[in-house]
Design a protein that fits this description.
Elements (H helix, E strand, L loop, with lengths): L1 H20 L10 E6 L7 E6 L7 E5 L8 E5 L6 E7 L2 E7 L3 E4 L10 E8 L4
């Protein structure tokens, strides 16, 4: 059995060397939209993102007993225009946003993956 472990280690090390030789790493990324809140809500909150004419929404839910920060990421959601709803114990805010997306290449130029990501800021309910 030790021989098998050794072979797998050598194979893994060889694969890493091969990947390093081409200059690309193994960091992944996703297309998507990040909604940054102007202030982290106290307690639980919910962020909904949707496009006009679609009843379905992308939903980020932060329970009251967790610290989720002030950002919600919606993978595979890259609309030209989005409608964002932020729901907290202090109220609800709804905004139309027009995100700008930038090409992300976490492993360097010319390396896969390539992702389109955008960030919009929406105020938290007062």
């Amino acid at each position: 059995m030790p021989l098998l472990r050794r072979s797998l280690s050598v194979l893994s090390l060889g694969s890493l060397t091969l990947l390093s030789a081409c200059g690309c790493n193994l960091v992944g990324c996703f297309d998507g939209l990040t909604v940054a809140l102007s202030v982290a809500p106290v307690g639980g909150y919910r962020v909904e993102a949707r496009v006009l004419g679609s009843p379905a929404a992308f939903v980020f839910e932060c329970p009251a007993d967790q610290d989720c920060g002030a950002r919600a990421f919606f993978a595979d959601f890259t609309p030209e225009v989005a409608f964002i709803t932020v729901i907290t114990s202090r109220g609800t805010v709804q905004r139309e946003v027009r995100p700008r997306y930038t090409l992300q290449q976490p492993n360097g130029k010319g390396c896969e993956p390539r992702c389109m990501q955008g960030t919009v800021t929406v105020e938290s309910p007062a």
